[in-house]
Amino acid sequence: MIEPHVPAPPGSPPPWSAPSGPDGPAPLPVRPGTGRFLVLAGVFVCAACGLVYELELLALASYLMGDSVTQASVVLSVMVFAMGIGSLAAKRLRGLAAAGFGAVEATLALVGGCSAMALYAVFAWGGDWGGDWGGMEASGPRCLLVAFSLATGLLIGAEVPLLMELIQRIRRQDAGGAVADLSAADYVGALVGGLAFPFLLLPFLGQLTGALLTGAVNAVVGGALVLGLFRRDLTRRARWLLLLANGLVLAVLASAAVLVDDFERAARQAMYGRDVRVALRTGVQEVVLSGGTHGRPLALFLDGRLRVSGRDELRYHEALVHPAMTGPHARVLILGGGDGLAAREVLRHPGVDRVDVVELDAEVVRLARTDPGLSALNRHAYGDPRVHVTIQDAFGRLREAPPAAYDVVVSDLPDPGITASTKLYSQEFYGLARRVLAPGGRLVVHAGPVAAGPRVYWTVDATLRAAGFRTAPYATGGRRAGFATGPDRTLTDRSRAPRDWGFVLAARTEPRLRLAPDGPRPRILTDASLTAGARAARGTRIAGLPASTLPHPRY
Questions:
Q1: By the number of CB atoms within 10 A of the CB, which of 141, 404, 425, 497 ranks highest?
Q2: Percent of the chain beyond pLDDT 90?
Q3: Contact 264, 208 (CB under 8 A)
Q4: CA of 299: how far to CAs of 264, 278, 455, in Å?
């Protein structure tokens, strides 16, 4: 006989839930299949947020400290190590998996969301980020980076055993199947987070706001998963504490997001002074332009590094360009130099028919054309019809250029000590430059400071020789920091700035280091100062250095 259906009394659990117990399924407000899907969706979102935190630390460390290989190695190794420790520590919380997971996500949202702002604040107001990792002056900021990497890794690692316990509480299955499900959701979430950071968060929101938004998403999803799906596993006090904690985290993140523009302006003034006129994030780098009007000296910063100082840029650009123009120079290729200052010096020479400027960042060229301070400094070089600009990577441009296309190649590129520039100082790169030079052509390379970095400087010389060039090394003095080998060499750290710039003039035959007898007279550079610069460079020579190649960079 079929018994009649008797409705469940009000307030009783749904028919698909069972009494809570350490080995039984959790009392869920939804069906087990739906609950399982929601947990895996939470894994997906949390994994995406975790990878964004990781990439944000990597990007900010590389931007603030340079040498991206070192920064990536430190951040990744510390974070992966911490994830293992976090997983082991979370074993003790399995009996309180729901409360533990909620606390972990709230803490992770706060730490990860605020990490970019905290690191940037220390960079702006805390002083030097350079030097060796063991240097006392740099220990504070670098220790903060390691601390954030460690804390983020510990919290991300703690997620996995707690999520495994929660998903098993919904419906028991073999451990291999549960691990496979969790891993699939985790890896797909990491893919989405990894793609969202460079293509959405960074270009549209920036590092600070992007990290804050990621923290808010992390807090909302973690809190909703625990308070919505596993609330019956929590005591009334635990529910209120978790709700309060997530509310406070969201309030902190929201307040920081509201103040982020004021914070950036204050930090920018702390780093670059109060004369900042232009500050923008391009698809390549951060560009900051200060001064240049009302008698104030112009300064151009790229990714926190001082690239142009109006006080003494003339010393640099005259030394870079004029020694290379002592021969045929109808066709000139400038690699880098988007500020137009190298082109200005090239155009001073009679007999120049065409100048090709290859610059990676179109915004730098736009500023050089339109900014009143920078365009006045380069004497409106881009208004000359002989100047042609190509927005392209210098390596790719050399590969595409026809053989013997240029009489002079000027390499006005970031220093070799910066990891992103290593390929532009390789034997392969100089081999391509040799191919595009006409017989009798000359290549001049900005090779970084001589006194502060002789090993890097002479590695450039050795690499040019390995590519088939004869070389003439020389240097020139500078009064201020500029074109330096690390982001610590900004206006905030003039005392440790290099006091010279090193160059190498190269040709197929032995180049003669002199000024063109029939050329324009530089305002500062003389034959005597060139001779003295060559003597000063030779005094730092390090013999026997190997060449730098793409598979084996030496910088």
A1: 425
A2: 63
A3: yes
A4: 19, 11, 28
What CA–CA distance (Å, rounded) separates 484 from 301?
Answer: 11
Pair of tokens at residue 428: 């392969």
> Residue 2 pLDDT more than 80?
no
Q: How many whole angstroms from its chain centre is CA 75?
A: 13
* d(C-alpha 78, C-alpha 109), whole Å: 19
Q: Is the pLDDT of residue 21 over 50?
A: no
More confident residue, 497 or 164: 164
Residue with tokens 């909302």: 220
Closest-CA residue to 112 (of 226, 195, 193): 193
pLDDT in tens, 417-459: 776 788 999 999 999 999 999 999 999 999 999 988 899 999 9
Q: 419: burial class by Cβ within 10 Å (0-12, 13-18, 19+)?
A: middle
Q: What is the pLDDT of residues 254-280, one digit of tens each?
A: 999 999 999 988 888 887 878 888 988
Q: Where are the alpha helices (DSSP H) in 91-135?
A: 97-125
Amino acid at the residue 509: T
Please give the Cα distance from 387 to 338 (Å, whole number).
Answer: 12
Contact assessment for residue 186 and residue 41, using Cβ atoms and an 8 Å cutoff = no
| Angstrom distances, CA of residue 475 to CA of 246, 455, 471 | 58, 14, 13
- Of 157, 25, 38, nearest to 91 by C-alpha is 157
Please state, in angstroms and rounded to a whole number, the distance separating the CA atoms of residues 115 and 105: 15
Exactly one of 233, 412, 415, 500 is catalytic; name it: 412
pTM of the model: 0.81
CA neighbor of 205 nearest in space, from 248, 260, 249, 254: 260
**Alpha carbons 123 and 138: distance in angstroms, whole number:** 11
C-alpha span between 199 and 205 (Å, rounded): 10
Whether the Cβ atoms of residue 317 and residue 344 lie closer than 8 Å to each other: yes
Give catalytic status of residue 415 as yes or no: no
Confidence of residue 139 (pLDDT cuts 50, 70, 90): low
Please give the C-alpha separations between residue 227 and each of 23, 223, 234, 248, 263, in angstroms, as whole numbers. 21, 6, 8, 16, 34
Q: Which residues pair with 343 in a beta bridge?
A: none
What would the two tokens of residue 518 be?
């029939």
